[in-house]
């Protein structure tokens, strides 16, 4: 009996560990589809909020949101060439994972890396919103290092490819009350109508230091600064400058200006 005690205890511990790990693995497998669906739903809500297509008078239910999102014209662009490609599926292409894949990503030269990315995906899923046969908005994913965290967002442009139609940050981990003000709808609402590029196509948009002075020459390119969060505000400026500079979407925008996209045509 004296020797059985510890053996029994070990067996009980092992069995308990086995049962618990089976339960945890089972839960992970069972919950994975729900988690993926929630991620898709979250992405859909963020992107759809930039389309201008959501009814203003009511909340859209999850199922309806997914139907609306799936009806968007989603395409994958080769960021380096600015051309659309049909070789990758925009519904499943994972830009974050691609940024860590040697084949699917490219190093960002330090001199051209204000967003502190290190590497970025060579491809990006983008969303075209149509009004009949006319392009109404172009929605592009952006990201950049904030003070504490990577800031992930989408920016919507009007068909002139320089007027901002909307902006959202759907993931960031900046300090509550300070850097996380970038995700506040009231602050983000200022972006609509602001100009991204100057006449030469160089990014000029930036988060101001303090309030934007109405009528000032820079006002069309500025949104208000964030009180106590200049570091995160500057990071936002930097990520915009990266993504709309020569290493970002500049080729895509030049390509789209030279050859406006047509509805239903997704390969160039
Ligand atoms: C604990 C702590 C957390 C902070 N978090 C942020 C932040 O998330 N974003 C940010 O820009 N500044 C943050 N700051 C403040 C910065 O250090 C810096 O003071 C600020 O960005 C300067 O902005 P201001 O010029 O508007 O005061 C934090 C400071 C402390 C002490």
Quick rundown:
By secondary structure, this protein is an alpha+beta fold.
Describe this entry's structure for a reader.
The chain is α+β, with helices and mostly antiparallel strands and 268 residues long. It has helices spanning 4-48, 62-70, 95-99, 185-188, 230-243, 250-258, and strands spanning 73-78, 83-85, 105-107, 119-121, 123-131, 134-145, 150-157, 164-171, 206-207, 222-223. It has two domains: 1-71, no CATH class; 73-258, no CATH class. The protein contains six helices and ten strands. Strands 2-1-5-6-7-8 form a six-stranded antiparallel β-sheet. The chain has a two-stranded antiparallel sheet with strand order 3-4. Strand 1 and strand 2 form a beta hairpin. The chain is globular. The protein starts with a helix and ends in a 10-residue tail after the last helix. Flavin mononucleotide is lined by residues 147-148, 174-175, 178-179, 227-232.
What labels describe this entry?
single chain; 268 residues; alpha+beta; 32% helix
Ligand kinds: flavin mononucleotide
Rounded to the nearest angstrom, the distance between the terminal CA atoms is: 79 Å
State the share of residues found in helices, binned by percent.
Answer: 25-40%
Number of domains: 2
Number of β-strand runs = 10
Q: Using the CA coordinates, give the radius of gyration.
A: 23 Å
* Helix and strand run: HHEEHEEEEEEHEEHH
Global outline: globular
Structural class: alpha+beta
Q: β content, as a range?
A: 15-25%
Largest sheet: 6 strands, antiparallel
Q: How are the strands of the biggest sheet laid out side by side?
A: 2-1-5-6-7-8
Uncertain ranges = none
Given the structure, what is the number of helices? Answer: 6
How confident overall, as mean pLDDT?
Answer: 93
């Amino acid at each position: 009996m004296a020797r059985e005690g510890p053996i029994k205890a070990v067996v009980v511990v092992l069995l308990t560990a086995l049962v618990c790990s089976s339960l945890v693995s089972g839960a992970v497998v069972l919950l994975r589809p729900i988690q993926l669906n929630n991620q898709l739903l979250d992405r859909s809500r963020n992107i759809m909020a930039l389309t201008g297509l959501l009814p203003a008078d009511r909340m859209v239910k999850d199922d309806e949101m997914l139907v609306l999102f799936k009806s968007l014209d989603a395409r994958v662009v080769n960021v380096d060439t600015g051309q659309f490609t049909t070789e990758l599926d925009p519904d499943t292409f994972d830009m974050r994972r691609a940024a860590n894949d040697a084949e699917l990503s490219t190093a960002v030269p330090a001199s051209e890396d204000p967003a502190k990315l290190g590497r970025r995906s060579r491809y990006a899923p983008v969303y075209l919103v149509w009004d009949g046969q006319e392009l109404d908005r172009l929605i592009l994913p952006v990201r950049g290092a904030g003070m504490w965290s990577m800031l992930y967002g989408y920016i919507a442009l009007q068909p002139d490819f320089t007027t901002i139609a909307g902006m959202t940050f759907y993931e960031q981990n900046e300090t509550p009350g300070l850097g996380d003000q970038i995700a506040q709808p009231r602050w983000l609402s200022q972006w609509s109508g602001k100009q991204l590029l100057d006449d030469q196509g160089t990014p000029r948009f930036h988060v101001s230091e303090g309030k934007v002075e109405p009528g000032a020459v820079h006002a069309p390119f500025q949104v208000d600064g964030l009180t106590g969060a200049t570091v995160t505000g500057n990071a936002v400026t930097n990520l915009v400058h990266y993504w709309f500079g020569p290493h970002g979407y500049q080729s895509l925008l030049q390509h789209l200006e030279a050859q406006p996209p047509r509805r239903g045509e997704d390969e160039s």
